[in-house]
Amino acid sequence: KMDDDDDIPQLSSHTLAALQEFYLEQQQKEGMKNSQGFNQYSVGSIEEDWQLSQFWYSDETASCLANEAVVAAGKGGRIACVSAPSVYQKLKEQDGKDFSVCILEYDRRFSVYGEEFIFYDYNHPLNLPENLLPHSFDIVIADPPYLSEECLQKTSETIKYLTKGKILLCTGAIMEEQAAKHLGVKMCKFIPKHSRNLANEFRCYVNYASGLD
């Protein structure tokens, strides 16, 4: 296919200016961090990378989703965060003795989290380490990086492999039918917010009785 380039979204000059300003801010923050020493698990210790289609949740949303995951996983539960690093960071902040968590993420900066980090590329949904056993997580919380059926379908293979049953999916409202088709999840009332406003309306979907309604 020769026409793939047509699909690459072009940024407007306004967005580019905002991005440049954003990167300047980041450089200043990096400088501050290096001089002060900081908690590596705090939200913001790793900044979102727009080129990887990363968009952090607002603090309230990340906390709400993390709390939901802990309750859903139950005591001693295992939680997998698939492409949902801001929820992972919130879970780490809780310093939970009652649950364990893994992060499956394309962004190798998260390798600072050691063995909990699993490099993940949704294009190879089952290319996972052997020690990541099937159906070994009490809940999987996932936020596929792109709003496309292909991305959702591939990420769904990973989710279904990992979960014992419970799924918490965050994706665009426009993905409602595909989410039901691939994962059997239904939209919740809770509306996730991002730290920067996204053009697409985002929603949460679950396949169990959650606290998000």
Report what the structure shows.
This protein has 213 residues and is of the alpha/beta class. The chain has 2 domains: 11-40; 50-206, 3-Layer(aba) Sandwich (Rossmann fold), CATH 3.40.50.150. It is built from 5 helices and 7 strands; from the N terminus they run ααβαβββαβαββ. Strands 3-2-1-4-5-7-6 form a 7-stranded mixed β-sheet, with helices on both faces. Helix 3 (85-93) links the parallel strand 1 (77-82) and strand 2 (99-105). It is globular. The termini are far apart.
> What sequence of helices (H) and strands (E) makes up the elements?
HHEHEEEHEHEE
Proportion of strand residues: 15-25%
* End-to-end CA span: 43 Å
CATH level 4 superfamily of the largest domain: Vaccinia Virus protein VP39
Average pLDDT: 83
Tally of distinct domains? 2
Tell me the overall shape.
globular
CATH class of the largest domain: Alpha Beta
Radius of gyration: 17 Å
Catalytic activity: L-lysyl-[protein] + 3 S-adenosyl-L-methionine = N(6),N(6),N(6)-trimethyl-L-lysyl-[protein] + 3 S-adenosyl-L-homocysteine + 3 H(+)
Main location: cytoplasm
GO molecular function: nucleic acid binding; protein-lysine N-methyltransferase activity
Protein name: EFMT1 methyltransferase
List keywords for this structure.
213 residues; alpha/beta; Rossmann fold; 5 helices; globular; Efm5/EEF1AKMT1; methyltransferase; transferase; cytoplasm
